[in-house]
Amino acid sequence: MNMDWINDALANLSEQSQIEGLERQGQLTKPPGSLGELEAMAVRLCAMQGVGKPSVDNAKIVVFAGDHGITEEGVSAFPQVVTGEMIKNFSAGGAAITALADQQGADFEVVNVGIVVDLPAMEKVVDATVMPGTSNFAKQAAMTADQLAQALQAGKVAAERAHAQGATLFIGGDMGIGNTSSATALSAWVLNDDANNHVGPGTGLDAQGVDHKGKVIAAALAKHANAMSSPIEALRHVGGLEVAALVGAYIRCAQLGVTVLVDGFITTSAALIAAQIQPQITDWMFFSHASAEPGHQAMVKALQAKPILDLGMRLGEGSGAGVALSILKSACATHNNMATFAEAAVSEKSA
Q1: Which of 137, 117, 103, 162 has the alpha carbon at shortest distance from 325?
Q2: Cα angle 196-275-59, degrees, rounded to a multiple of 5
Q3: Does residue 317 have an active-site annotation?
Q4: Model pTM?
Q5: How far, in Å, are 105, 283, 318 from residue 251 at the CA level?
Q6: Strand pairing category for 169-175 and 259-262
Q7: Considering the chain, what percentage of its residues have pLDDT values greater than 70?
Q8: Shortest CA distance to 281 belongs to which of 306, 301, 244, 253?
Q9: In this structure, how many other beta carbons lie within 10 angstroms of the beta carbon of residue 166?
Q10: Are 201 and 210 in contact (CB under 8 A)?
Q11: pLDDT value at 351 more than 70
Q12: What is the mean pLDDT of residues 257-268?
């Protein structure tokens, strides 16, 4: 399967709409800059959406799910069957992200890119299975080139589905036991750093478990070092199916001109790889929160990003983005619905 599409041009931001947004901010009944980051967010959304009054009311949340062969190395506190059990929980509406999707009035779906258990057809679950979880990257590449292309394609199709539904904002979530190991490996590779500086407890490892996890990932990076000559090869060797799908979704969203709200540790590792492929992609991204996972801070810094929230969250699923969506909605509400000085007959600041 071909993956050349990932290099296709990204959509252009509207400079004219950005100017209009800035001009409107200057006319609203408030001291200039007094709404802080909300003002900057609203203006960025104007540029992304090509409008003077942006909206993120039509948000699409897609959780990509995949299992990881690296769990054979004892790097996770939970067994792999949990991934499938959580997909059932998503479908039933019992997870944190589904509660947040309901709160936000956001459309929600799960894309199963490949897990170790077979699942029946379920509501809100799209089957895009590539393989039953990745191979153990401590021993071999996580995926073949064709499997990687299929995972990227699953993300591309999900982004196109969101765009066709008129989504003004795309949130990608993740579910996959072992995926913090992939995210850590990708982060360490991009930043050319020791994996032990990025490794964290994931779903609840103790200090000894974290130390073991760091050693496993560092050894795997050393094993594949010569083969990982590009971001695509790094993703193929130590990535996950759901991480690859996120990379595909992010790139396709930016090509289609759909705003992306990045969640936490796993999704930021996908954003980091996407930015290695398409450096301008961060123009289309907001970063929702500062994850409690140690490696997240380094990735955010490398991307020159500014997380909207810092709530000590580390669940994944897209949950941090589900909360941060409220802030973007507030940015739009104040930008769109406040009166201008002229409309409200309020005196402006003296010259």
Answers
A1: 103
A2: 105
A3: yes
A4: 0.97
A5: 25, 11, 17
A6: parallel
A7: 100
A8: 253
A9: 10
A10: yes
A11: no
A12: 98
Helix H, strand E, coil C: the string for the chain is: CCCHHHHCCCCCCCHHHHHHHHHHHHHECCCCCCCCHHHHHHHHHHHHHCCCCCCCCCEEEEEEEECCHHHHHCCCCCCCHHHHHHHHHHHHCCCHHHHHHHHHCCEEEEEEEECCCCCCCCCCEEECCCCCCCCCCCCCCCCCHHHHHHHHHHHHHHHHHHHHCCCCEEEEEEECCCHHHHHHHHHHHHCCCCHHHCCCCCCCCCHHHHHHHHHHHHHHHHHHCCCCCCHHHHHHHHCCHHHHHHHHHHHHHHHHCCEEEECCHHHHHHHHHHHHHCHHHHHHEEECECCCCHHHHHHHHHCCCCCCECCCCCCCCCHHHHHHHHHHHHHHHHHHHCCEHHHHCCCCCCC
Catalytic residue among 20, 39, 293, 317: 317
Cβ pair 246, 172 in contact under 8 A: yes
> Tokens 């980091």 identify what position?
272
Q: Among all chains, which residue has been given the structure tokens 């990745």? A: 134
350 token code pair: 């003296």
Measured CA to CA, the distance from residue 322 to residue 333 in angstroms comes to: 17
| Long-range contact pairs involving 279-282 (C-beta distance under 8 Å, separation at least 24) | 280/10, 280/254, 281/10, 281/250, 281/251, 281/254
Q: How far is CA 146 from CA 72, 152, 270, 350, in A?
A: 23, 10, 19, 65
Q: 347 pLDDT exceeds 90? A: no
CATH code of the region 59-328: 3.40.50.10210
Is the model's pLDDT at 139 over the cut of 80? Answer: yes
CA 87 to chain centre: 18
